[in-house]
Here is the input.
Amino acid sequence: MKRKITYETYRDKVLGAWLGKSVAGTIGAPYEGRKELFHYTYDPKAIQEMLPNDDLELQVLWLEVIEKKGIYFHSDDLAEAFLRQCPYAPGEYGVFMKNYARGIHPPLSGAFNNRYYLNGMGCPIRAEIWACIAPGNPRLAAEYAAKDGILDHEGDSVYAEQFWAAIESAAFFEPDIVRLLDVGMAYLPAGTRIRQLVEDTIGWCASESSWEQVRESIIRRYGHPDCTNLYQNTGFTLLALLHGRQHFIETTMIALNCGYDTDCSCATAGALLGIIQGASYLKATYDFYDTSYKLAIDVVRPDNKLETLADDACRVGLTIADVLNREVEIIGVPAYEPVPTARIHDLRCRVDYHGDPVIGLGETKTITLHIDKDHAGVEDMMLHAELTIPQEWESDWQPRTLHLTDDGICIDIAFRLSDGIKLLLECNRMELTLTGSGKNYAYTFGLNGAQIWKVYGPFWENAVQFSPTELGEWYSTQDLGFEDPDLATDAVRNYHLNAVADPERDYLSVPQPYQLVNIKEDLFSVTDLFGYQGPCVAYAERSLYCPEDREVHLLVGHTDAYRIWINGEEVSRSDKREWWTAENKHHRGIKLKKGRNLIRLKLIRNGKEAEYSLIFAEKGSCMPQQFDHGSYR
Here is the structure.
């Protein structure tokens, strides 16, 4: 039986979502990234001026996509808008843009080469739009949220966006926070870390009267140094909702005072309370008003009023209620113009890379191309298929005629790179064209070229230098100069059991043999280069191709010491051992010349593991480059 909601109530709750998100997000925004425990009290001047926030503006972008593409949009429709209309690209946003620009489609656009930001907050903060267009239908809201989340995340972050979308969808009818959390739990798979976090936080809040103590428990079990990491921030949001007693200001201030990604935790909690209580209640109780909103993305709306944004979201929700949302009946609906409901795609193409979407020197890579009907209403078709591939690549592809039925088509295509290839670009986009039945279709996908590194080493030193001995003479009887016999024992046993990496010695001052190694992601370990264990020095050289003279930024990630030279000039060094991030060090104004650039990386492993990454950026410190560079043979 359908549940009923008046249009007046529906709109008031949608407006409440946007108002609650804007107000709470603005309260939290100035403290984003700070990890201290705060004790701020609310001051109305904190919301006198709204601040741009990706939490809201990406949802405004998604609304525009639905208005143009309709209710049957694909993840690629969101991805195209994201790439084209967002000028900023921190963290996982930049990883997505780099992947998608290279033809790596969702879901791999969020999973590949995204080790540090994979479990970020970037998609859980975008859940409200899906709840607002699918009120009272958590399943449908979660399905929409998944189409969004896989753009730039995988796994727990996507589950978290579905969790919040389902909760907020149910909140149009259910006001109890605990019951809402039960609804959301259905979208957190058993055994996942995000589900365990939610269960633990609910338990801690039920047994502990001090929210500060619950915060400590969250950090102790789920804390992460990245201020935007999913786990601690989801815990802080839940803590604020469960200890805030549905009081908007109290809830928001708890979220703020927990610290870390405060604009996100505050905004999500505020949006949920806004749906439960409605904009009219928020205005009457807290003297809130239509704060309007600001955008830093390339989107033009009729105006910047939250009232208008609510009207536009409701227009989508009404359309979906007539076509897809069978759980709810919205009554008292005024005249409105529906968004498109026609199926805009007849075909759906996807690529199974059978692993990473990368091919290396001397390798054969087989992919499977899947072509399916997008929906049941598409008739069988005869299609002529052509595929463009990069020059100098070998492939078993041949043009062919395909008979597309309801069963779809799977085509295995093998690509081969000969050892003699002169240049392997990292960005290799291929276009499949399908013609027939009076229509033309095109699908572009990519296969990244591996980074080709010449690897020299390993090089290492003995912990103790013994003098030469005669045949039959015991070297261990030599006097090492230690008065303390334990120190002498330490030195000898360290000689037997360990080695030393000398960071200052130039091991390439004389010619050395090397091996070519294909590196498939930005992050790699010394153990990816060779199997030798122990402290050592290795050199990795790459001849980087650049299509033109460029001044770029270099982002270096590392866990151990290193030196980097570009075209013979040292550009970065460190003797520190650190927690790896994609951005341990930033270098602006790095000059690359047109053609060949020699990069030499000296890796200095002192402990068990040593990991490194080099990312070239063109727009600020976090925006990965998208120009076509690659490795010379």
Summary: The chain has four domains: 3-331, 347-449, 452-459+500-632, 462-498. The chain is about 35% helix and 25% strand.
